[in-house]
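Good morning,

Attaching, inline, the backbone tokens for the sequence recovery test we're adding to the shared suite. The designed sequence is right after.
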């Protein structure tokens, strides 16, 4: 099951607005930010924020109320997609301000999809180069340990790359971690029970960092 398994369902009022916009020959992707779509943007933001509570790409918390650190994300960028994809529920999620500014309009679709110029939104994960919250499980592609992101698949690698998820690591290095006794107990258990070699080594390094700090 994907991380987002209940795409937004727009109200009748908002569906009428969408239909009106798509029937307007002057409507363009940059009109998304217009005042007359404010209610639709807020409805979308509130729905996905309440559903996932985190940025879809870096998995850090988004703001609880402000729009400044909770942006409505078009997974396939508005400027690169058919106009109707702007309102496609499965093309929408929420992300933090940093991921929004960094990802921008970078290409996320597979070359085959781009060449075919589909009129309907892709129906499977295979159509995307990037982790897609409506089709994928994050932990299948990216392992996050504090501020470190490890790719577990080509899709995870591409997501880390275009969102620059390891920027903090590259700029400041690895910060020592101080854990409580209960967190240490949970960490030991996680190491013992983890079957994936890469993930287990990341957890061991987290434990090692704790002892560096404690000493």
């Amino acid at each position: 099951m994907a991380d987002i398994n209940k795409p937004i369902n727009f109200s009748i009022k908002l569906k009428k607005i969408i239909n009106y916009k798509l029937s307007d020959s002057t409507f363009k992707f940059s009109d998304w930010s217009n005042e007359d779509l404010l209610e639709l943007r807020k409805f979308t933001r509130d729905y996905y924020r309440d559903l996932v509570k985190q940025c879809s790409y870096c998995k850090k918390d988004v703001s609880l109320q402000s729009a400044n650190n909770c942006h409505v994300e078009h997974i396939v960028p508005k400027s690169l997609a058919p106009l109707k994809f702007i309102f496609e529920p499965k093309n929408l999620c929420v992300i933090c301000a940093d991921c929004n500014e960094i990802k921008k309009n970078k290409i996320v679709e597979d070359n085959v999809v781009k060449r075919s110029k589909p009129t309907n939104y892709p129906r499977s994960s295979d159509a995307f180069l990037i982790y897609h919250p409506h089709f994928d499980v994050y932990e299948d592609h990216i392992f996050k340990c504090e501020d470190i992101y490890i790719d577990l698949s080509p899709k995870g690698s591409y997501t880390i790359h275009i969102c620059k998820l390891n920027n903090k690591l590259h700029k400041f290095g690895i910060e020592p971690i101080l854990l409580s006794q209960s967190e240490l107990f949970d960490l030991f258990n996680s190491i013992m029970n983890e079957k994936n070699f890469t993930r287990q080594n990341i957890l061991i390094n987290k434990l090692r960092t704790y002892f560096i700090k404690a000493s």
